[in-house]
Every structure is written in C-alpha cells, then in structure tokens.
UniProtKB/TrEMBL annotation:
EC nos: 3.1.-.-
Enzyme class (EC, first level): hydrolase
Protein name stated in the entry: Endoribonuclease YbeY
Gene that this polypeptide is encoded by: ybeY
Protein purpose: Single strand-specific metallo-endoribonuclease involved in late-stage 70S ribosome quality control and in maturation of the 3' terminus of the 16S rRNA.
Family from the record: Belongs to the endoribonuclease YbeY family.
Keyword terms, alphabetized: Cytoplasm, Endonuclease, Hydrolase, Metal-binding, Nuclease, Ribosome biogenesis, rRNA processing, Zinc
Cofactor(s) needed by this chain: Zn(2+)
Amino acids binding Zn(2+): 116, 120, 126
Species of origin: Jeongeupia naejangsanensis
Record-linked InterPro entries: MetalPrtase_cat_dom_sf_prd, YbeY, YbeY_CS
Classification via PANTHER family: ENDORIBONUCLEASE YBEY, CHLOROPLASTIC
Domain of life: Bacteria
Length: 157
C-alpha cells in the first residue's frame, strides 16, 4: 500500500530506552487503517509533570497518564480517504512503570501505547464494553503482528 505518514517526534524528557522515530513510524503505520492514505502525527514524549498538567488541563484528571490523544478536530471523525491529523503524548515515567508492573519490555509497552493512541486518532474508543472489545482485539492483532506479545495477556510466564 502506498501511504504517506509524516511523523514529528518531540522528546521532552531525559528518560532512557525511548523508541526512535523509525520505530514509531513502523508501529503507527501498522495501526493506520486501510482507508487512511495520509497522516500527519506528532508524538511528544514527556515527563510526569507535563503529563499531569496536560491530563488535568484537557481531561480534568489530576494525574499523569500513559498516553493522551489529541485529534485535529474533535467534531470531525476520521473519514476514509481524508488526511488524518493529530498528536499523541506519551508520559515516559508512566509507560515505564506500567511496563514493569505488567511484566513487559519497555519497547513492547511503547508499541502498545502508540498503537492504542493511533487507533484513538482514527475514532476508536473504549468507553462502552463493545467498543473496548473491538479496540482491544484490534490492538492485540496489530501488536502481535509487530512481533510483541498480546498486550492484554495477564499471565507472565
């Protein structure tokens, strides 16, 4: 498929083990649905302070979260054939802590968070149970295709 993905990467943390731009593009391209022909996405990796501030300012939740998704126009869902624009903000300390708690490698969890956020940019959500089931199944398929374990696997053999 010929698709154009323009990715801007901003790193606003001194955290170690961050994925590079080429790795991010691979993960995002895998998460873009077939109808998306072009996408312009900014990924910003932040520290806990900025992550908490953004989550508080935009979601009214006063804690840092793993990934925040900002679409270009909340009133305009992703439409097949139209360009996709948006931003993903990943909070490095939260992603690192979750990876340790879940027994995953750091890169596997970053992959999952990028796939998760990229799906959000395209209108997927997990508020309702049926939406969550669909989104989680898609995330699992994409992440495992990329060579990582099922991100929702609960055993840590």
């Amino acid at each position: 498929m010929s698709r154009r993905l323009k990715l801007a990467l901003q790193v606003a943390t001194d955290a170690a083990g961050l994925p590079g731009k080429a790795q991010l593009k691979t993960w995002m391209d895998a998460a873009l649905r077939p109808g998306v022909k072009t996408a312009e996405i900014t990924v910003r990796i932040v520290d806990a302070e900025e992550g908490q501030q953004l989550n508080r300012d935009y979601r009214g939740k006063d804690y840092a979260t793993n990934v925040l998704t900002f679409t270009f126009d909340d009133d305009m869902p992703a439409v097949e054939g139209l360009p996709l624009f948006g931003d993903l903000v990943l909070c490095a300390p939260v992603v690192e802590r979750e990876a340790q708690e879940q027994g995953k490698t750091l890169l596997a969890h970053y992959c999952h968070m990028i796939v998760h956020g990229t799906l959000h940019l395209q209108g997927y959500d997990h508020i309702e149970d049926d939406e969550a089931d669909e989104m989680e199944a898609l995330e699992t398929q994409i992440v495992t295709t990329l060579g990582y374990d099922d991100p929702y696997r609960t055993d840590t053999e």
